[in-house]
Design brief:
The protein is of the alpha/beta class. It has helices at 22-37, 105-122, 204-219; strands spanning 11-15, 44-48, 53-56, 73-75, 82-85, 89-95, 136-142, 145-160, 163-171, 191-192, 223-225.
Length: 229
């Protein structure tokens, strides 16, 4: 499937080196999406972490919140169900104008998945799609247990007037026990993993560099670096 590219991309990149409050991030993201819509700002990819919290997408089921009160729960307009955000997980909020790229939601989600798969390959990790599920998984084998698939990256998007909001979350080295308070993305027959859990020890800055480099392969070559805390 062709990528959702634009031939004259100039994308701004923002990197936050401290945990960002979720409500603050959503507020900033929505303001930026509005400005992108009206051509007052460039498209933006914002890489950040959040304090420990759960988010509930538009399809979240109340029974999938297993530990109410454990962490704050934020209702959000993105698609999907419950997910966890916290330190050690790199969240990429992607704000693109699909009207001038390709106004195709399926293409956009496919490109996000391809981005994560391409980035994981740089760390010698094979990310895969799972039929009927959104996100990226890895196959796990253990001589003492049946083969299984564990999720390493979640994807949840919202599109407003063809400008994208939310994006992907990649598990670098979060506390995986924190996922135990929810049924992640409504999947009861799969686990959750991370680069650290797979024995790949990389820093957040290394992940950021890789995400930025591989983004161009899926969304277009033009990028502009802007550092902000």
């Amino acid at each position: 499937m062709p990528g959702c590219r634009s031939p004259d991309d100039v994308i701004e990149w923002r990197f936050s080196d401290r945990p960002v409050d979720y409500a603050e991030a959503v507020r900033d993201m929505e303001h930026r999406a509005h400005d992108i819509r009206w051509k007052h700002a460039r498209e933006l990819v914002w890489l950040l972490e959040h304090p420990p919290l759960y988010t509930a997408g538009t399809s979240a089921r109340s029974g999938d919140l297993l530990s109410p009160g454990r962490f704050p729960v934020h209702r959000t307009g993105r698609g999907g169900q419950y997910t966890y955000h916290g330190p050690g997980q790199r969240v990429a909020y992607v704000m693109l104008d699909l009207a001038r790229r390709r106004p195709d939601v399926r293409c956009y989600v496919h490109s996000l998945e391809e981005w994560v798969i391409t980035a994981l390959a740089r760390f010698n990790v094979t990310g895969i799609r799972s039929q009927g599920q959104v996100g990226i998984w890895v196959r796990r084998t253990d001589r003492n247990a049946p083969a299984r698939q564990d999720k390493i990256a979640a994807i949840g998007v919202r599109i407003r007037r063809w400008v994208t909001l939310h994006g992907v979350s990649l598990n670098v080295a979060p506390d995986l026990e924190h996922f135990g308070g929810i049924v992640p993305c409504g999947v009861r027959d799969g686990g959750v993993t991370s680069l650290e859990d797979l024995g790949v020890l990389v820093s957040i800055p290394e992940v950021d560099v890789t995400l930025k480099e591989t983004f161009a392969e899926c969304f277009g070559p033009g990028t502009r670096m802007e550092l902000s805390g």
